[in-house]
């Protein structure tokens, strides 16, 4: 598989992560991951010394844009932007058809717990402890069997968008961890990282790196319509 490059300059390179691949290496060394495969692709094209630095991740079943550093001088500025939430991430979600405002935000605290049935780690809202989680939501479209929701996380908690929507009765189609609609059946998690927006730390230019909606989400949009 050749991963499409969405943006590149002398400091950064952004590419489209497909659904189904972990963002980075896992405990199981035999399991393919996006970072390793993309680095291999670039080294085969440009030489074995090509440098690629990993600074953020997407859930395994989430598709969309990921950005990497191309040299070590860019590592600290990019890491700092992610740490201080100076990179605006925008996601598209296909959710259950449920009453919701045109725009709203969720501000709460999330804590990790192990689901005894699924035997997986998941997040839940807590009244005390946990980490702050903040997401802005906007309803883009109402379909016959679902909604198209835009999500802008302002913090970086695990599964943040998924749990915020599920707890609002707006589970994302294809979610195998949080409550989600089962009919029609989605081919995978209907969550896509559409864009990254930030001020380039070296050139000071305003950048918006976008990733087109993949075919499987487009097809499922038609199903929901």
Q: How would you describe this structure to a colleague?
A:
The structure is a single chain. With 225 residues, the chain is α+β, with helices and mostly antiparallel strands. The protein has a single domain (5-224), classed as Pseudouridine synthase (2-Layer Sandwich), CATH 3.30.2350. 17% of the residues lie in helices and 36% in strands. The protein has helices at 34-46, 75-83, 160-166, 215-224; strands at residues 5-8, 12-17, 53-54, 63-69, 88-95, 103-115, 120-126, 131-142, 147-153, 191-199, 206-210. Strands 1, 2, 3, 4, 5, 6, 7, 8, 9, 10 and 11 form an eleven-stranded mixed beta sheet that branches. A hairpin with a 4-residue loop joins strand 8 (131-142) and strand 9 (147-153). The mean pLDDT is 95.
Brief rundown of the structure:
The protein is α+β, with helices and mostly antiparallel strands. Helices cover 17% and strands 36% of the residues.
């Amino acid at each position: 598989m050749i991963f499409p490059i969405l943006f590149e300059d002398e400091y950064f390179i952004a590419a489209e992560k497909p659904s189904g691949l972990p963002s980075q290496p896992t405990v199981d060394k035999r399991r393919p991951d996006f970072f390793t495969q993309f680095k291999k692709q670039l080294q085969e094209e440009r030489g074995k010394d090509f440098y690629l630095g990993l600074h953020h991740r997407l859930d395994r079943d989430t598709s969309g844009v990921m950005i990497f550093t191309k040299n070590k001088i860019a590592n600290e500025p990019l890491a700092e932007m992610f740490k201080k939430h100076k990179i605006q991430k925008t996601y598209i979600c296909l959710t259950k058809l449920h009453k919701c405002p045109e725009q709203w935000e969720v501000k709460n605290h999330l804590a990790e717990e192990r689901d005894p049935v699924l035997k997986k780690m998941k997040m839940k809202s807590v009244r005390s402890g946990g980490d702050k989680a903040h997401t802005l939501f906007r309803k883009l479209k109402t379909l016959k069997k679902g909604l198209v929701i835009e999500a802008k996380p302002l913090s970086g908690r695990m599964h943040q968008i998924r749990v915020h929507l599920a707890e609002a009765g707006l589970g994302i189609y294809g979610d195998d961890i949080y409550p989600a609609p089962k009919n029609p059946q989605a081919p995978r998690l209907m969550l896509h990282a559409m864009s990254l927006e930030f001020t380039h730390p070296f050139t000071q230019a305003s950048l918006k790196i976008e990733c087109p909606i993949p075919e499987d989400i487009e097809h499922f949009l038609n199903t929901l319509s």
